[in-house]
Design goal:
Layout lengths: L3 E7 L18 H8 L2 E7 L5 H10 L3 H4 L15 H7 L3 E6 L14 E3 L47 H18 L8 E6 L11 H4 L16 H4 L2 H9 L2 H9 L1 H31 L6 E7 L18 H4 E2 L1 E4 L8 E8 L3 H9 L13 H4 L4 H7 L5 E6 L8 E6 L2 E6 L3 E6 L17 H14 L2 H23 L1
Parallel strand pairs: 1-5, 1-6, 2-9, 3-4, 3-5
Antiparallel strand pairs: 2-7, 2-8, 6-8, 10-11, 11-12, 12-13
Length: 480
């Protein structure tokens, strides 16, 4: 009997704010319990830290430069297989409830059914959404700045901004209805329940926010010379997010308190939703034959390094939570230290469904890892020295950007401009760029070579710029 698979997704959830990843905020009791009864991946990364590209990469198991899903306005071809097609080949019903932020006309990409589709950011092709242009000077988001750095400042404008809160309530209502109608003798299903929380702008009802009023948060701080430490990618993104204008207000102690209390309130609401789904599956007798996976498309900087939003390759932005739970099949409480990425979900799900992937994909199946019964088998599943890659080709930058992570070492390449290198064990806040250090020259060379072997930056730059020009041409046509 094939197992059901339920994928619960957050948006912009930094794993550092979850109890199972070391937080003491108390925002995730249900997800922490899921982790205690399952497998938690400590070092999971998205492959492009922005909503649409990250989700497209996760769904297809391919890098965004390969499928053309460069930014939040891009689409990818309906002829690119997704993990949904793998499930369908194995006889699964495939259902999406909530957000997936697909661009273009195809809003299904292998899902049989979409529920609460109206809650998504995009529900079809919109030629009037402005593309981005790398050839223009670094500047604030031309699409408007309200959701950029301004939304990280405590302001009465957000006191009653229930946009994401209300959408998540609608998504959750459909999720509860869907699972309530399921029985253990139904055909197997893959259901992705994808919420908006805790994506900015930040809102939580006062009674929820006050749950965290007495929490002793470790709030971010930055050295006085932070501006001198920013790389070119940081400066571009800070301009795009209007960070210089709001920096002092964001980093004020009382504002950071508000930001973390509100963010945790949104995470807590998400956790309550996840808890209700888990409880319902158990009540329906579906828990014994259902694999639950929890993740997010990316994180959020939340003031670390004085930065906001995502789009960059620092840990608060590019890392994601990843939890697998399958009672009596996967070992409870196993923590996986090796680096993995969201690209690994496609081959993993194909293995779980008992079907093949469409071609050689860059990810690996995590199934041997999750099902391991011993440390020896676990280390055979994922090499300690495995390199995980990410790329950023979207709005706010002006050249292709790449990341390679191996163990505690991170290499960043902004093509044609600069390189950065961080030792995450000795510098977890990523404040000391060690690219010129002879101490690390060996691993820097290896990671540099691995990026240039995996990607062709010159060709990617040409493709991305051509895509931007074409979409701007179409935009101008529709304005006439």
């Amino acid at each position: 009997m094939k197992p059901n698979v339920v994928l619960i997704m957050a948006d912009s959830l930094a794993p550092q704010l979850m109890g199972s990843y070391g937080s003491t905020a108390g925002a995730t009791p249900n997800l922490d319990a899921l982790a205690q009864n399952g497998v938690i991946f400590d070092r999971a990364y998205c492959n492009s830290p922005l909503c649409t590209p990250s989700r497209a990469s996760m769904m297809t198991g391919r890098y965004v430069s390969e499928i053309g899903a460069y930014d939040n306005v891009s689409s990818f071809s309906s002829e690119v297989p997704t993990l949904n097609h793998a499930f369908k080949r194995a006889g699964y019903q495939t259902v999406l409830i909530g957000k997936m932020h697909f661009g273009g006309y195809d809003q299904y990409h292998g899902f049989d059914q979409r529920l609460a589709m109206e809650t998504d950011y995009s529900t079809g092709y919109n030629p009037l959404r402005p593309p981005y242009d790398w050839t223009l000077p670094s500047a604030p988001n031309p699409g408007g700045g309200a959701w950029m750095a301004a939304s990280y400042v405590n302001d009465k404008a957000w006191d009653n901004y229930t946009h994401h809160w209300d959408r998540d309530a609608a998504i959750h209502k459909e999720a509860i209805r869907f699972f309530s109608e399921k029985n253990d003798n139904d055909p197997p299903f893959f259901c992705c329940v994808s919420y908006h929380h805790p994506h900015n702008p930040f809102y939580a009802p006062k009674e929820i926010r006050e749950r965290f009023r007495e929490n002793n948060f470790t709030l971010p701080s930055v050295p006085s010379d932070m501006n001198d430490r920013y790389g070119i990618m940081d400066k571009w993104l800070n301009d795009f997010h209007s960070q210089p204008e709001y920096f002092d207000r964001i980093m004020a102690a009382d504002n950071l308190r508000w930001l973390y209390e509100t963010y945790c309130g949104m995470v807590y609401d998400l956790d309550c939703h996840a808890g209700e789904i888990i409880k319902l599956l158990k009540a329906k007798g579906l828990d014994k034959n259902t694999i639950i996976v929890f993740t997010s498309d990316h994180g959020d900087m939340l003031g670390h390094r004085g930065m906001v939003q995502k789009r960059c390759f620092y840990e608060y932005s590019v890392r994601t939570p990843l939890i697998f739970s399958y009672p009596d099949h996967f070992p409870a409480g196993l923590r996986v230290k090796q680096t993995v990425s969201l690209l690994d979900l496609f081959p993993t799900f194909a293995s779980l469904a008992g079907t093949s992937v469409p071609q050689e994909l860059p990810g690996i199946s995590l199934l041997p890892e999750a099902a391991a019964k011993s440390e020896i088998k676990r280390l055979q599943g994922i090499p300690d020295g495995r390199i995980v890659f990410a790329e950023y080709l979207g709005e706010g930058v002006h050249a292709p950007c790449f990341m390679a992570v191996a163990g505690n070492y991170k290499y960043i390449r902004v093509h044609g401009f600069e390189e950065m290198f961080f030792d995450l064990e000795n510098d977890p806040e990523e404040l000391e760029n060690q690219i010129a250090s002879h101490k690390y020259s060996g691993i820097i060379g290896e990671l540099r070579s691995s990026v240039l072997k995996q990607f062709n930056p010159d060709a990617i730059a040409v493709q991305a710029l051509e895509n931007q020009r074409n979409r701007n041409y179409i935009l101008e046509a529709h304005k006439k």
